[in-house]
């Protein structure tokens, strides 16, 4: 069983930045990959970014150059640094981890609005 707890969401103006955190209850060095997803109101959940056990990162096209996913194995935490935020980034952001099966966090709300 893996528990994931996200934090760092909030209200930010367009062009601003936020850093989300996802803390795991197990050593993340044992997790094949971890992902960030988001779900905007009335829309399907979409994959945002991924970081693998060896640190390889990938991103959906809409966030490339603006978002950065990273990990700190000593804190069993991954991060999503979000810069140049746009109103279209407004969503609930959730963390996902794949071990023997997939686990989800509860999500954190990000609202980009002036």
Topology of helices and strands:
Layout: E1 4-7, E2 10-12, E3 18-24, E4 33-39, E5 46-52, E6 57-59, E7 67-72, E8 77-82, E9 91-98, E10 102-104, E11 108-112
Parallel strand pairs: 2-11
Antiparallel strand pairs: 1-3, 3-8, 4-5, 4-9, 5-6, 7-8, 9-10, 9-11
Characterise this structure.
This protein is mostly beta strands and 114 residues long. The chain is 0% helix and 52% strand. The chain has no helices and eleven strands. Strands 2, 4, 5, 6, 9, 10 and 11 form a seven-stranded mixed β-sheet that branches. Strands 1-3-8-7 form a four-stranded antiparallel β-sheet, with no helix packed on it. Strand 7 and strand 8 form a beta hairpin. It is globular, with a radius of gyration of 13 Å. The mean pLDDT is 96.
The global form is globular
Number of strands: 11
**How large a portion of the residues is in β-strands, by DSSP E?**
over 45%
What separation lies between the terminal Cα atoms?
40 Å
- Structural class per helix/strand content? mainly beta
Number of helices: 0
- What is the rounded Rg? 13 Å
Largest beta-sheet details: 7 strands, mixed
Mean pLDDT: 96
The poorly predicted ranges are none
Name the assembly state. single chain
- Helix-strand pattern: EEEEEEEEEEE
Helix content: under 10%
List keywords for this structure.
seven-stranded mixed sheet, 114 residues, globular, mainly beta, four-stranded antiparallel sheet
Task: Describe the structure concisely for a colleague.
With 114 residues, the protein is mainly beta. Helix content is 0%, strand content 52%.
